[in-house]
Design brief:
Number of helices: 28
Distance between the termini: 38 Å
Strand content: under 5%
Protein backbone atom coordinates (compact mmCIF):
# COMPACT_ATOMS: atom_id res chain seq x y z
CA UNK A 1 0.00 0.00 0.00
CA UNK A 2 2.76 2.48 -0.85
CA UNK A 3 0.35 5.18 -2.06
CA UNK A 4 -1.92 5.12 0.99
CA UNK A 5 -0.96 7.59 3.73
CA UNK A 6 -0.63 6.59 7.35
CA UNK A 7 -3.88 8.09 8.57
CA UNK A 8 -5.85 6.39 5.82
CA UNK A 9 -4.34 3.10 7.02
CA UNK A 10 -5.33 3.94 10.61
CA UNK A 11 -8.90 4.52 9.46
CA UNK A 12 -8.90 1.27 7.48
CA UNK A 13 -7.79 -0.57 10.59
CA UNK A 14 -10.31 1.07 12.93
CA UNK A 15 -13.23 0.92 10.50
CA UNK A 16 -12.64 -2.51 8.98
CA UNK A 17 -10.24 -4.21 11.41
CA UNK A 18 -7.83 -4.53 8.50
CA UNK A 19 -4.81 -6.57 9.55
CA UNK A 20 -3.19 -5.73 6.21
CA UNK A 21 -3.42 -1.99 6.95
CA UNK A 22 -1.99 -2.44 10.45
CA UNK A 23 0.84 -4.62 9.17
CA UNK A 24 1.73 -1.88 6.68
CA UNK A 25 1.85 0.70 9.51
CA UNK A 26 4.19 -1.56 11.46
CA UNK A 27 6.38 -2.10 8.38
CA UNK A 28 6.66 1.64 7.77
CA UNK A 29 7.51 2.69 11.30
CA UNK A 30 9.14 -0.31 12.97
CA UNK A 31 12.68 1.03 12.49
CA UNK A 32 11.78 4.41 14.01
CA UNK A 33 10.15 2.87 17.08
CA UNK A 34 12.82 0.21 17.49
CA UNK A 35 15.59 2.83 17.22
CA UNK A 36 14.11 5.01 19.96
CA UNK A 37 13.60 1.90 22.09
CA UNK A 38 17.21 0.81 21.50
CA UNK A 39 18.57 4.16 22.69
CA UNK A 40 16.65 3.77 25.93
CA UNK A 41 17.23 0.05 26.45
CA UNK A 42 20.71 -0.41 25.03
CA UNK A 43 19.95 -4.00 23.99
CA UNK A 44 17.82 -5.72 21.38
CA UNK A 45 15.71 -7.82 23.74
CA UNK A 46 14.37 -4.90 25.74
CA UNK A 47 14.08 -2.75 22.62
CA UNK A 48 11.83 -5.39 21.07
CA UNK A 49 9.63 -5.36 24.20
CA UNK A 50 9.28 -1.60 23.99
CA UNK A 51 8.55 -1.66 20.24
CA UNK A 52 5.91 -4.34 20.69
CA UNK A 53 4.32 -2.33 23.47
CA UNK A 54 4.14 0.81 21.32
CA UNK A 55 2.27 -0.96 18.55
CA UNK A 56 -0.07 -2.68 21.00
CA UNK A 57 -0.93 0.77 22.33
CA UNK A 58 -1.44 1.94 18.74
CA UNK A 59 -3.91 -0.88 18.14
CA UNK A 60 -5.77 -0.01 21.34
CA UNK A 61 -5.81 3.76 20.76
CA UNK A 62 -6.15 3.83 16.95
CA UNK A 63 -9.73 5.08 17.02
CA UNK A 64 -8.68 8.18 18.95
CA UNK A 65 -5.87 8.98 16.51
CA UNK A 66 -7.80 9.06 13.24
CA UNK A 67 -7.89 12.87 13.06
CA UNK A 68 -4.16 13.46 13.62
CA UNK A 69 -2.05 14.91 10.82
CA UNK A 70 0.65 12.25 10.96
CA UNK A 71 1.39 9.13 12.96
CA UNK A 72 5.15 9.58 13.24
CA UNK A 73 5.08 12.11 16.07
CA UNK A 74 2.66 10.05 18.15
CA UNK A 75 4.72 6.89 17.69
CA UNK A 76 7.88 8.75 18.67
CA UNK A 77 6.28 10.17 21.82
CA UNK A 78 4.84 6.79 22.83
CA UNK A 79 8.19 5.08 22.26
CA UNK A 80 9.90 7.67 24.47
CA UNK A 81 7.40 7.28 27.30
CA UNK A 82 7.49 3.49 27.11
CA UNK A 83 11.26 3.38 26.89
CA UNK A 84 11.62 5.71 29.88
CA UNK A 85 9.26 3.52 31.90
CA UNK A 86 11.27 0.42 31.06
CA UNK A 87 14.54 2.09 32.02
CA UNK A 88 13.20 3.27 35.36
CA UNK A 89 12.00 -0.26 36.12
CA UNK A 90 15.04 -2.16 34.87
CA UNK A 91 17.56 0.24 36.38
CA UNK A 92 16.09 -0.43 39.83
CA UNK A 93 15.98 -4.20 39.32
CA UNK A 94 19.30 -5.07 37.78
CA UNK A 95 22.44 -3.74 36.16
CA UNK A 96 23.26 -5.55 32.96
CA UNK A 97 26.78 -5.71 31.68
CA UNK A 98 26.93 -5.73 27.89
CA UNK A 99 29.39 -5.24 25.14
CA UNK A 100 30.31 -1.56 24.90
CA UNK A 101 27.61 0.53 23.21
CA UNK A 102 30.19 2.02 20.87
CA UNK A 103 33.76 1.02 20.02
CA UNK A 104 36.43 3.57 19.24
CA UNK A 105 38.20 3.05 15.94
CA UNK A 106 41.27 4.70 14.52
CA UNK A 107 39.60 5.64 11.26
CA UNK A 108 36.31 7.02 12.62
CA UNK A 109 34.83 9.98 10.79
CA UNK A 110 33.96 13.16 12.66
CA UNK A 111 30.29 12.16 12.64
CA UNK A 112 31.18 8.70 14.03
CA UNK A 113 33.23 10.16 16.86
CA UNK A 114 30.55 12.74 17.59
CA UNK A 115 27.83 10.10 17.67
CA UNK A 116 29.56 8.25 20.50
CA UNK A 117 29.22 11.44 22.53
CA UNK A 118 25.70 12.31 21.39
CA UNK A 119 24.05 8.90 21.75
CA UNK A 120 23.77 8.89 25.58
CA UNK A 121 22.39 12.44 25.48
CA UNK A 122 20.10 12.38 22.45
CA UNK A 123 16.81 11.32 24.03
CA UNK A 124 17.37 13.68 26.96
CA UNK A 125 17.95 16.47 24.44
CA UNK A 126 14.84 15.54 22.47
CA UNK A 127 12.67 15.92 25.57
CA UNK A 128 13.67 19.60 25.67
CA UNK A 129 12.04 20.22 22.28
CA UNK A 130 8.37 20.79 21.57
CA UNK A 131 6.30 17.94 20.12
CA UNK A 132 6.25 19.74 16.75
CA UNK A 133 10.03 19.97 16.73
CA UNK A 134 10.45 16.32 17.73
CA UNK A 135 8.06 15.29 14.96
CA UNK A 136 9.94 17.18 12.25
CA UNK A 137 13.29 15.73 13.38
CA UNK A 138 11.83 12.22 13.55
CA UNK A 139 10.57 12.55 9.99
CA UNK A 140 13.73 14.15 8.60
CA UNK A 141 16.46 12.15 10.34
CA UNK A 142 14.89 9.03 11.85
CA UNK A 143 12.68 8.16 8.88
CA UNK A 144 14.91 9.95 6.31
CA UNK A 145 12.12 11.95 4.69
CA UNK A 146 13.07 14.81 2.39
CA UNK A 147 12.21 18.38 3.27
CA UNK A 148 9.33 18.34 0.80
CA UNK A 149 8.00 15.01 2.12
CA UNK A 150 8.22 16.23 5.71
CA UNK A 151 6.37 19.44 4.89
CA UNK A 152 3.62 17.55 3.08
CA UNK A 153 3.12 15.09 5.94
CA UNK A 154 2.96 17.82 8.58
CA UNK A 155 0.82 20.09 6.41
CA UNK A 156 3.08 23.14 6.21
CA UNK A 157 5.11 24.80 3.46
CA UNK A 158 8.54 23.39 2.70
CA UNK A 159 10.37 26.55 3.78
CA UNK A 160 8.54 26.39 7.11
CA UNK A 161 9.59 22.76 7.59
CA UNK A 162 13.25 23.69 6.91
CA UNK A 163 13.01 26.58 9.35
CA UNK A 164 11.48 24.36 12.05
CA UNK A 165 14.18 21.74 11.46
CA UNK A 166 16.95 24.34 11.72
CA UNK A 167 15.45 25.76 14.91
CA UNK A 168 15.22 22.30 16.48
CA UNK A 169 18.80 21.43 15.50
CA UNK A 170 20.05 24.68 17.00
CA UNK A 171 18.32 23.83 20.28
CA UNK A 172 19.97 20.41 20.24
CA UNK A 173 23.36 22.03 19.55
CA UNK A 174 22.97 24.35 22.52
CA UNK A 175 21.95 21.45 24.76
CA UNK A 176 24.89 19.32 23.68
CA UNK A 177 27.25 22.28 24.16
CA UNK A 178 25.96 22.69 27.72
CA UNK A 179 26.92 19.03 28.28
CA UNK A 180 30.42 19.51 26.91
CA UNK A 181 29.84 18.25 23.36
CA UNK A 182 30.74 20.99 20.88
CA UNK A 183 29.85 20.77 17.20
CA UNK A 184 27.88 22.46 14.42
CA UNK A 185 24.26 21.82 13.54
CA UNK A 186 25.34 20.37 10.18
CA UNK A 187 27.61 17.76 11.78
CA UNK A 188 24.99 16.96 14.41
CA UNK A 189 22.41 16.43 11.69
CA UNK A 190 24.79 14.12 9.83
CA UNK A 191 25.59 12.13 12.97
CA UNK A 192 21.94 11.67 13.89
CA UNK A 193 20.88 10.78 10.36
CA UNK A 194 23.71 8.27 9.95
CA UNK A 195 23.51 6.51 13.29
CA UNK A 196 20.15 7.05 14.99
CA UNK A 197 18.18 4.34 13.18
CA UNK A 198 18.80 0.74 14.24
CA UNK A 199 17.42 -1.89 11.86
CA UNK A 200 14.83 -3.95 13.69
CA UNK A 201 15.18 -7.74 13.63
CA UNK A 202 13.54 -9.27 10.55
CA UNK A 203 10.89 -11.23 12.45
CA UNK A 204 9.99 -8.40 14.84
CA UNK A 205 7.44 -6.67 12.58
CA UNK A 206 5.50 -9.89 12.09
CA UNK A 207 5.40 -10.78 15.80
CA UNK A 208 4.49 -7.22 16.76
CA UNK A 209 1.64 -7.13 14.24
CA UNK A 210 0.19 -10.33 15.64
CA UNK A 211 0.48 -9.19 19.26
CA UNK A 212 -0.85 -5.71 18.60
CA UNK A 213 -3.88 -6.86 16.61
CA UNK A 214 -4.64 -9.21 19.49
CA UNK A 215 -4.53 -6.06 21.68
CA UNK A 216 -1.60 -7.48 23.62
CA UNK A 217 -3.07 -10.81 24.65
CA UNK A 218 -0.31 -12.64 22.78
CA UNK A 219 2.49 -10.53 24.22
CA UNK A 220 4.91 -11.56 26.89
CA UNK A 221 4.54 -10.51 30.51
CA UNK A 222 7.11 -7.71 30.25
CA UNK A 223 5.35 -6.22 27.21
CA UNK A 224 1.97 -6.49 28.90
CA UNK A 225 3.29 -4.65 31.95
CA UNK A 226 4.79 -1.94 29.77
CA UNK A 227 1.57 -1.69 27.74
CA UNK A 228 -0.56 -1.06 30.81
CA UNK A 229 1.85 1.58 32.02
CA UNK A 230 2.13 3.22 28.62
CA UNK A 231 -1.62 3.37 28.06
CA UNK A 232 -2.17 4.82 31.51
CA UNK A 233 0.65 7.29 31.09
CA UNK A 234 -0.36 8.41 27.59
CA UNK A 235 -3.96 8.85 28.73
CA UNK A 236 -2.90 11.28 31.42
CA UNK A 237 -0.19 13.12 29.48
CA UNK A 238 -0.77 16.25 27.41
CA UNK A 239 1.39 17.26 24.48
CA UNK A 240 1.94 20.59 26.13
CA UNK A 241 4.84 20.97 28.56
CA UNK A 242 3.74 21.51 32.14
CA UNK A 243 5.62 21.38 35.42
CA UNK A 244 4.78 17.72 35.93
CA UNK A 245 5.84 16.76 32.38
CA UNK A 246 9.14 18.52 33.05
CA UNK A 247 9.58 16.44 36.19
CA UNK A 248 8.84 13.25 34.28
CA UNK A 249 11.27 14.28 31.56
CA UNK A 250 13.92 15.06 34.16
CA UNK A 251 13.42 11.72 35.92
CA UNK A 252 13.44 9.84 32.62
CA UNK A 253 16.62 11.60 31.51
CA UNK A 254 18.27 10.85 34.86
CA UNK A 255 17.31 7.18 34.61
CA UNK A 256 18.60 6.96 31.04
CA UNK A 257 21.97 8.34 32.11
CA UNK A 258 22.05 5.97 35.09
CA UNK A 259 21.29 2.95 32.97
CA UNK A 260 23.54 3.81 30.04
CA UNK A 261 26.42 4.65 32.37
CA UNK A 262 26.56 0.92 33.09
CA UNK A 263 27.22 0.10 29.42
CA UNK A 264 29.52 2.94 28.37
CA UNK A 265 33.27 2.66 28.04
CA UNK A 266 35.17 3.09 31.25
CA UNK A 267 36.69 6.41 30.24
CA UNK A 268 33.19 7.96 29.86
CA UNK A 269 32.06 7.19 33.41
CA UNK A 270 33.32 10.35 35.04
CA UNK A 271 31.55 12.57 32.50
CA UNK A 272 28.31 10.64 32.91
CA UNK A 273 28.47 10.95 36.70
CA UNK A 274 28.75 14.70 36.30
CA UNK A 275 25.71 14.72 34.03
CA UNK A 276 23.76 12.64 36.55
CA UNK A 277 24.62 15.03 39.33
CA UNK A 278 23.46 18.02 37.28
CA UNK A 279 20.22 16.30 36.29
CA UNK A 280 19.61 15.34 39.91
CA UNK A 281 19.99 18.97 40.96
CA UNK A 282 17.62 20.05 38.16
CA UNK A 283 15.11 17.41 39.14
CA UNK A 284 15.20 18.37 42.81
CA UNK A 285 14.61 21.99 41.80
CA UNK A 286 11.63 21.00 39.64
CA UNK A 287 10.23 18.71 42.34
CA UNK A 288 10.45 21.54 44.84
CA UNK A 289 8.59 23.84 42.47
CA UNK A 290 5.88 21.22 41.85
CA UNK A 291 5.33 20.61 45.53
CA UNK A 292 5.31 24.28 46.48
CA UNK A 293 2.02 25.69 47.70
CA UNK A 294 1.47 29.23 48.96
CA UNK A 295 1.19 29.55 52.72
CA UNK A 296 -2.25 29.16 54.25
CA UNK A 297 -4.24 30.92 55.47
CA UNK A 298 -3.94 33.27 52.52
CA UNK A 299 -3.66 36.98 53.33
CA UNK A 300 -6.51 39.40 52.72
CA UNK A 301 -6.50 40.49 49.09
CA UNK A 302 -6.81 44.17 48.27
CA UNK A 303 -10.30 45.35 49.12
CA UNK A 304 -12.33 48.11 47.56
CA UNK A 305 -11.08 47.52 44.02
CA UNK A 306 -13.86 46.22 41.79
CA UNK A 307 -13.12 42.91 40.15
CA UNK A 308 -12.74 43.19 36.42
CA UNK A 309 -15.26 40.95 34.75
CA UNK A 310 -14.27 39.75 31.31
CA UNK A 311 -16.83 38.64 28.77
CA UNK A 312 -17.32 34.94 28.39
CA UNK A 313 -15.85 35.08 24.90
CA UNK A 314 -13.39 37.82 24.10
CA UNK A 315 -13.82 37.34 20.38
CA UNK A 316 -15.37 34.74 18.13
CA UNK A 317 -13.22 31.75 17.33
CA UNK A 318 -13.31 32.76 13.68
CA UNK A 319 -14.96 35.26 11.37
CA UNK A 320 -15.01 33.40 8.10
CA UNK A 321 -18.10 33.68 5.96
CA UNK A 322 -18.92 37.27 5.14
CA UNK A 323 -22.48 36.18 4.45
CA UNK A 324 -22.77 34.51 7.86
CA UNK A 325 -20.68 36.78 10.07
CA UNK A 326 -23.63 38.91 11.21
CA UNK A 327 -26.03 36.00 11.57
CA UNK A 328 -26.50 33.39 14.24
CA UNK A 329 -28.38 30.52 12.61
CA UNK A 330 -30.12 28.33 15.15
CA UNK A 331 -31.90 25.03 14.72
CA UNK A 332 -35.63 24.97 15.29
CA UNK A 333 -37.13 22.72 17.93
CA UNK A 334 -38.24 20.33 15.21
CA UNK A 335 -34.76 20.21 13.64
CA UNK A 336 -33.11 19.56 17.00
CA UNK A 337 -35.57 16.79 17.82
CA UNK A 338 -35.08 15.21 14.40
CA UNK A 339 -31.32 15.19 15.01
CA UNK A 340 -31.81 13.57 18.42
CA UNK A 341 -34.19 10.97 17.02
CA UNK A 342 -31.59 9.80 14.53
CA UNK A 343 -28.54 10.02 16.84
CA UNK A 344 -30.08 9.19 20.21
CA UNK A 345 -30.41 11.29 23.33
CA UNK A 346 -26.99 10.78 24.89
CA UNK A 347 -24.87 13.38 26.68
CA UNK A 348 -22.98 14.55 23.57
CA UNK A 349 -26.03 14.84 21.30
CA UNK A 350 -28.17 16.61 23.92
CA UNK A 351 -25.41 19.17 24.45
CA UNK A 352 -24.99 19.66 20.70
CA UNK A 353 -28.73 20.14 20.30
CA UNK A 354 -28.69 22.65 23.16
CA UNK A 355 -25.82 24.67 21.68
CA UNK A 356 -27.19 24.70 18.13
CA UNK A 357 -30.79 25.48 19.12
CA UNK A 358 -30.30 27.50 22.29
CA UNK A 359 -33.07 25.52 23.99
CA UNK A 360 -32.20 25.41 27.73
CA UNK A 361 -34.55 22.46 28.25
CA UNK A 362 -32.08 20.27 26.38
CA UNK A 363 -29.27 21.26 28.74
CA UNK A 364 -31.52 20.53 31.71
CA UNK A 365 -32.29 17.11 30.25
CA UNK A 366 -28.58 16.36 29.90
CA UNK A 367 -27.95 17.53 33.47
CA UNK A 368 -30.69 15.26 34.80
CA UNK A 369 -29.82 12.17 32.76
CA UNK A 370 -26.02 12.41 32.71
CA UNK A 371 -24.95 14.30 35.84
CA UNK A 372 -21.58 12.52 36.00
CA UNK A 373 -20.52 13.26 32.43
CA UNK A 374 -17.62 15.78 32.48
CA UNK A 375 -18.83 17.66 29.39
CA UNK A 376 -22.30 18.00 30.89
CA UNK A 377 -20.76 19.33 34.10
CA UNK A 378 -18.62 21.74 32.05
CA UNK A 379 -21.66 23.16 30.23
CA UNK A 380 -23.72 23.25 33.43
CA UNK A 381 -21.05 25.25 35.25
CA UNK A 382 -21.76 28.17 32.88
CA UNK A 383 -25.56 27.98 33.15
CA UNK A 384 -26.57 31.50 34.17
CA UNK A 385 -29.84 30.24 35.58
CA UNK A 386 -28.16 28.39 38.45
CA UNK A 387 -28.02 29.67 42.00
CA UNK A 388 -24.55 30.09 43.56
CA UNK A 389 -25.08 26.89 45.51
CA UNK A 390 -26.06 24.96 42.38
CA UNK A 391 -23.09 26.31 40.48
CA UNK A 392 -20.78 25.23 43.29
CA UNK A 393 -22.34 21.77 43.16
CA UNK A 394 -21.74 21.45 39.42
CA UNK A 395 -18.15 22.61 39.77
CA UNK A 396 -17.64 19.89 42.36
CA UNK A 397 -19.20 17.40 39.95
CA UNK A 398 -16.88 18.59 37.17
CA UNK A 399 -13.86 17.96 39.40
CA UNK A 400 -15.04 14.48 40.38
CA UNK A 401 -15.89 13.45 36.81
CA UNK A 402 -12.64 14.86 35.37
CA UNK A 403 -10.04 14.49 38.16
CA UNK A 404 -7.10 14.90 35.77
CA UNK A 405 -8.43 18.04 34.07
CA UNK A 406 -6.86 21.23 35.42
CA UNK A 407 -9.71 23.29 33.95
CA UNK A 408 -12.08 21.92 36.61
CA UNK A 409 -9.69 23.09 39.34
CA UNK A 410 -9.21 26.50 37.74
CA UNK A 411 -12.94 27.18 37.41
CA UNK A 412 -13.43 26.02 40.98
CA UNK A 413 -10.61 28.27 42.21
CA UNK A 414 -12.19 31.34 40.59
CA UNK A 415 -15.54 30.47 42.14
CA UNK A 416 -13.93 30.26 45.57
CA UNK A 417 -12.10 33.56 45.09
CA UNK A 418 -15.31 35.26 43.99
CA UNK A 419 -17.08 34.01 47.11
CA UNK A 420 -14.25 35.17 49.39
CA UNK A 421 -12.95 31.68 50.20
CA UNK A 422 -9.29 32.40 49.47
CA UNK A 423 -7.78 29.33 51.12
CA UNK A 424 -9.96 26.96 49.11
CA UNK A 425 -9.05 28.88 45.96
CA UNK A 426 -5.34 28.50 46.69
CA UNK A 427 -5.81 24.77 47.27
CA UNK A 428 -7.54 24.42 43.91
CA UNK A 429 -4.69 26.25 42.16
CA UNK A 430 -2.23 23.87 43.79
CA UNK A 431 -4.35 20.87 42.74
CA UNK A 432 -4.33 22.07 39.11
CA UNK A 433 -0.54 22.17 38.93
CA UNK A 434 0.86 19.57 36.58
CA UNK A 435 -2.46 18.51 35.08
CA UNK A 436 -3.38 19.08 31.42
CA UNK A 437 -6.31 21.30 30.41
CA UNK A 438 -9.18 19.81 28.42
CA UNK A 439 -11.93 22.20 27.33
CA UNK A 440 -13.58 19.84 24.81
CA UNK A 441 -13.38 22.45 22.02
CA UNK A 442 -12.87 20.03 19.14
CA UNK A 443 -15.51 17.60 20.46
CA UNK A 444 -18.05 20.39 20.78
CA UNK A 445 -17.27 21.71 17.31
CA UNK A 446 -17.64 18.31 15.66
CA UNK A 447 -20.93 17.37 17.30
CA UNK A 448 -22.38 20.81 16.57
CA UNK A 449 -21.42 20.46 12.89
CA UNK A 450 -23.13 17.07 12.82
CA UNK A 451 -26.31 18.66 14.18
CA UNK A 452 -26.31 21.32 11.47
CA UNK A 453 -25.63 18.70 8.79
CA UNK A 454 -28.56 16.64 10.06
CA UNK A 455 -30.77 19.73 9.76
CA UNK A 456 -29.98 20.03 6.05
CA UNK A 457 -27.18 22.61 6.07
CA UNK A 458 -24.41 22.15 3.53
CA UNK A 459 -21.08 20.81 4.77
CA UNK A 460 -19.43 24.20 4.25
CA UNK A 461 -22.19 26.03 6.14
CA UNK A 462 -22.37 23.45 8.93
CA UNK A 463 -18.64 23.57 9.62
CA UNK A 464 -18.40 27.34 9.32
CA UNK A 465 -21.40 28.07 11.55
CA UNK A 466 -20.17 25.61 14.17
CA UNK A 467 -16.77 27.29 14.26
CA UNK A 468 -18.18 30.80 14.18
CA UNK A 469 -20.62 30.17 17.04
CA UNK A 470 -18.27 28.09 19.16
CA UNK A 471 -18.44 29.77 22.53
CA UNK A 472 -15.40 29.67 24.76
CA UNK A 473 -16.77 30.85 28.12
CA UNK A 474 -13.79 29.49 30.04
CA UNK A 475 -11.35 31.98 28.51
CA UNK A 476 -12.72 35.05 30.21
CA UNK A 477 -12.84 33.21 33.53
CA UNK A 478 -9.28 31.97 33.19
CA UNK A 479 -8.01 35.46 32.46
CA UNK A 480 -9.88 36.76 35.49
CA UNK A 481 -8.35 33.99 37.58
CA UNK A 482 -4.91 35.01 36.32
CA UNK A 483 -5.52 38.56 37.52
CA UNK A 484 -6.85 37.32 40.85
CA UNK A 485 -3.80 35.11 41.32
CA UNK A 486 -1.49 38.07 40.70
CA UNK A 487 -3.52 40.04 43.28
CA UNK A 488 -3.01 37.11 45.65
CA UNK A 489 0.75 37.23 45.03
CA UNK A 490 0.77 40.96 45.80
CA UNK A 491 -1.06 40.26 49.05
CA UNK A 492 1.55 37.65 50.02
CA UNK A 493 4.32 40.09 49.13
CA UNK A 494 2.78 42.85 51.27
CA UNK A 495 2.53 40.34 54.11
CA UNK A 496 6.28 39.69 53.83
CA UNK A 497 5.96 36.20 52.32
CA UNK A 498 8.03 36.45 49.14
CA UNK A 499 8.20 32.67 48.63
CA UNK A 500 4.42 32.27 48.57
CA UNK A 501 4.13 35.29 46.28
CA UNK A 502 6.54 33.71 43.78
CA UNK A 503 4.69 30.39 43.93
CA UNK A 504 1.39 32.10 43.20
CA UNK A 505 2.91 33.86 40.19
CA UNK A 506 4.32 30.56 38.91
CA UNK A 507 0.84 29.06 39.19
CA UNK A 508 -0.60 31.90 37.11
CA UNK A 509 2.15 31.52 34.50
CA UNK A 510 1.52 27.79 34.27
CA UNK A 511 -2.16 28.48 33.70
CA UNK A 512 -1.32 30.63 30.69
CA UNK A 513 1.14 28.09 29.33
CA UNK A 514 -1.67 25.56 28.92
CA UNK A 515 -3.03 27.59 26.03
CA UNK A 516 0.16 29.26 24.77
CA UNK A 517 0.91 26.26 22.50
CA UNK A 518 -2.51 25.10 21.30
CA UNK A 519 -3.31 21.61 20.10
CA UNK A 520 -5.11 21.00 16.80
CA UNK A 521 -8.80 21.83 17.09
CA UNK A 522 -8.28 24.66 19.57
CA UNK A 523 -9.23 28.19 18.61
CA UNK A 524 -6.41 30.69 18.09
CA UNK A 525 -8.09 33.13 20.47
CA UNK A 526 -7.35 30.57 23.19
CA UNK A 527 -3.65 30.91 22.41
CA UNK A 528 -3.88 34.70 22.64
CA UNK A 529 -5.60 34.48 26.02
CA UNK A 530 -2.96 32.01 27.23
CA UNK A 531 -0.22 34.42 26.17
CA UNK A 532 -2.00 37.28 27.94
CA UNK A 533 -2.32 35.29 31.19
CA UNK A 534 1.34 34.29 31.18
CA UNK A 535 2.38 37.89 30.47
CA UNK A 536 0.23 39.12 33.37
CA UNK A 537 2.11 36.75 35.69
CA UNK A 538 5.55 37.53 34.27
CA UNK A 539 5.02 41.28 34.47
CA UNK A 540 4.61 40.88 38.23
CA UNK A 541 8.01 39.12 38.52
CA UNK A 542 11.53 40.52 38.53
CA UNK A 543 12.35 40.85 34.82
CA UNK A 544 15.97 39.79 35.40
CA UNK A 545 15.19 36.66 37.41
CA UNK A 546 15.71 33.22 35.77
CA UNK A 547 12.74 31.60 34.10
CA UNK A 548 12.70 27.87 33.36
CA UNK A 549 15.79 25.71 33.08
CA UNK A 550 17.23 26.82 29.74
CA UNK A 551 19.06 29.93 30.90
CA UNK A 552 16.24 32.32 30.03
CA UNK A 553 15.17 35.29 32.12
CA UNK A 554 11.65 36.53 32.72
CA UNK A 555 12.28 39.34 30.24
CA UNK A 556 13.43 36.84 27.61
CA UNK A 557 10.15 34.97 27.97
CA UNK A 558 8.15 38.19 27.82
CA UNK A 559 9.91 39.09 24.59
CA UNK A 560 9.15 35.67 23.11
CA UNK A 561 5.49 35.91 24.07
CA UNK A 562 5.23 39.38 22.54
CA UNK A 563 6.77 38.08 19.32
CA UNK A 564 4.41 35.11 19.33
CA UNK A 565 1.40 37.38 19.82
CA UNK A 566 2.53 39.76 17.08
CA UNK A 567 3.03 36.85 14.66
CA UNK A 568 -0.51 35.62 15.29
CA UNK A 569 -1.92 39.10 14.75
CA UNK A 570 0.13 39.56 11.57
CA UNK A 571 -1.13 36.28 10.12
CA UNK A 572 -4.69 37.19 11.07
CA UNK A 573 -4.29 40.54 9.32
CA UNK A 574 -3.09 38.79 6.17
CA UNK A 575 -5.89 36.23 6.37
CA UNK A 576 -8.95 38.46 6.71
CA UNK A 577 -8.85 40.10 3.23
CA UNK A 578 -8.52 36.66 1.63
CA UNK A 579 -11.55 35.03 3.24
CA UNK A 580 -14.17 36.38 0.78
CA UNK A 581 -12.25 34.67 -2.04
CA UNK A 582 -12.54 31.15 -0.64
CA UNK A 583 -14.76 28.61 -2.37
CA UNK A 584 -17.13 26.44 -0.40
CA UNK A 585 -14.73 23.50 -0.76
CA UNK A 586 -11.86 25.56 0.56
CA UNK A 587 -13.94 26.58 3.58
CA UNK A 588 -14.36 22.87 4.24
CA UNK A 589 -10.63 22.34 3.75
CA UNK A 590 -9.87 25.24 6.08
CA UNK A 591 -12.00 23.79 8.87
CA UNK A 592 -10.65 20.29 8.39
CA UNK A 593 -7.08 21.57 8.55
CA UNK A 594 -7.88 23.52 11.71
CA UNK A 595 -9.26 20.38 13.31
CA UNK A 596 -6.40 18.11 12.28
CA UNK A 597 -3.35 20.40 12.14
CA UNK A 598 -4.29 23.54 14.08
CA UNK A 599 -5.53 27.00 13.18
CA UNK A 600 -2.06 28.36 12.37
CA UNK A 601 -1.63 25.65 9.77
CA UNK A 602 -5.08 26.33 8.31
CA UNK A 603 -4.41 30.06 8.07
CA UNK A 604 -1.01 29.54 6.47
CA UNK A 605 -2.62 27.24 3.93
CA UNK A 606 -5.15 29.93 2.96
CA UNK A 607 -2.45 32.60 2.73
CA UNK A 608 -0.25 30.30 0.67
CA UNK A 609 -3.07 29.52 -1.77
CA UNK A 610 -4.78 32.90 -2.04
CA UNK A 611 -2.12 35.43 -1.09
CA UNK A 612 1.57 36.05 -0.82
CA UNK A 613 3.57 34.66 2.07
CA UNK A 614 5.86 37.38 3.44
CA UNK A 615 9.60 36.71 3.13
Amino acid sequence: MPDVNDMALVRQYTDHNSETAFAELVRRHINLVYSVAWRYAGNSHDAQDVAQTVFIVLAQKAATLRHRATLTGWLYETARFTGARLIRTRARQQAREQEAYMQSTLNDSEADRLWRQLAPLLEDAMTRLSERERTVLALRFFENKSGAETAALIGIREWAAHKRTARALEKLRKFFTSRGVNSTTAVIATAISSHSVQAAPMALAKSITAAAIAKGTAAGSSSLSLTKGAVKFMASTHAKTTVVSLIVAGLAALSIVQYQAQIQLRQQNEGLRQQMAQLQRDNEQLSTRRAATPRLPAPQMQAGVPTTVYPEQESPSTNLYARLKDKQPKLTHEQAEAYLKVNGRNAATLLAAFRTSGDPALLKEAMQKYPNDPQVAFEAAFDKGLSPEEQRQWLNTFEKSAPNNALANYLSALNYFNSGQRDQGVQELAAASGKPVQDYTSDRYQTDAEAYLAAGYSEADAKTISGMQLLLPQLGQLKQLGLDTVDLANAYRQAGDAASAQTALQMAAEMGQHYASPSPGEAEVSQLVGIAIERIALNAMDSNSPYGNNGQTVQDQLNQLAQQRDTINTIEGQLQPLLPQLSDQDWINYRDRWLMFGEENAESWVIGKYGQVPP
